[in-house]
Design brief:
The protein has 232 residues and is of the alpha/beta class. 40% of the residues lie in helices and 18% in strands. Helix 3 links the parallel strand 3 and strand 4.
């Protein structure tokens, strides 16, 4: 954490490994963003699973509050086979409505992060935010370009429902056939970062996480330098 701060980063994003929560004894004096585990099966339509996911998110919310986090991010997940889109929307609304209210009471903004599976995702996210007042969304620039003919960043930035709820952005790249393999910025060479950042600057002015996986400090600094150059 302190190494990142010395490099000029303005906030720290905290993630958890193996669902084990550990609060550092000494915290850097910068804002925190709390990222919940992305593998929680919130899309699984079984009551006991839904209750377990909500309880885990609540545990993370308490930890985020203890840390003084400004945002808590949860991952949207789509079933591989989606038989009932409306049921999935209802399911997420039922999970996120109470969690959003509880987060607001703790002065934390709850944020739903888009996924890598784009099948009907825009429409589903629109309906979820319509049903959950106060819920924000996070745009993942790597996912927006993953296995698509055209980068979807503009679709999110200019969407009348999602753009006003945009509270955080993840900048990074992923391997062409593995959405879980994060890469440093500019690694693939086929990402038009100049255009994407221009669109982002026009429509967004809040926090950005350089999500480049478990990269060496040199790659973190290289990605940061590239991002600042693109941002101008």
């Amino acid at each position: 954490m302190h190494a990142l701060i010395s490099q000029g980063f303005e906030f720290i994003e905290v993630t958890t490994a193996n669902h084990v929560l550990t609060i550092p004894a000494q915290l850097p004096q910068v804002p925190f963003i709390w990222q919940c585990p992305a593998d929680l099966p919130a899309e699984y339509p079984v009551v006991l699973v839904q209750e377990a996911v909500l309880n885990i998110w609540r545990m993370h919310l308490r930890a985020a509050a203890e840390l003084g986090a400004a945002l808590m991010v949860v991952q949207f997940r789509r079933p591989e086979v989606l038989s009932d889109k409306l049921a999935l929307i209802d399911q997420y609304a039922a999970l996120l409505s109470p969690l959003t209210a509880e987060a607001r009471a703790l002065k934390i903004q709850l944020v739903l992060r888009m996924g890598a599976d784009h099948r009907e995702q825009l429409n589903i996210l629109r309906e979820i935010v319509r049903r959950v007042p106060g819920l924000a969304v996070a745009l993942d620039l790597a996912y927006a370009s993953y296995q698509v003919i055209k980068n979807l960043t503009r679709e999110y930035l200019w969407d009348s429902d999602l753009a006003p709820r945009l509270a955080h952005v993840y900048a990074g790249e992923v391997a062409p056939n593995d959405a879980n393999l994060r890469l440093p910025l500019g690694c693939l060479g086929n990402f038009d970062w100049g255009r994407v950042v221009r669109d982002l600057r026009e429509r967004y002015n809040a926090s950005v996480t350089l999500d480049i996986g478990d990269a060496m400090p040199e790659y973190q600094e290289l990605s940061r330098t590239k991002w600042l150059a693109w941002w101008g």
